[in-house]
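Shipment paperwork, digital attachment
Item: protein structure file
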Amino acid sequence: MLLIYRAAVIATTVFSLLALTACDPQRISELKEGVSTEADVRDRFGAPENVWDEPGGARTLEYNRQPAGQVNYMITIGADGHMTALRQVLTPDTFARVVPGMRMDEVRRMLGKPAKVTPYELKKETWADWRFLASPNQAQVFTVIYGPDQFVLRTQTGADMDAPEFKGGK
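Attachment content:
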């Protein structure tokens, strides 16, 4: 009985996350750079996963859609309280900026919270995965491999084996 309850809770959580992601285009269309305020952003997106302080008094709000989604939004609010940028950061251009020697916290700041973090104790490595769409029908995973010192060793990109097309879905 407990197993059925847990499965139901997981299914409800995944459905809620997918519904959130499906509403994102509508929410984004309602926001305008230089006009919308932080209150407008929070009204549409809710509480951010994280808030990052920027130079000059600006702040970036992180809206994470991992692990079920394939996007992460960074919305910058200027010192005047108005939105100055809205970016979906899980893109090949952003991934190309992740290079060996970067600190784990720098990558986290750039990409947002990963979908999954897996430590490999024997290899003394930690793998962080971000799910994204390389094209409308091509789900992928960008992986950053860190050493024990929390610096990037290497990155890799591959098929998202948890995507519906690999699980028998559409």
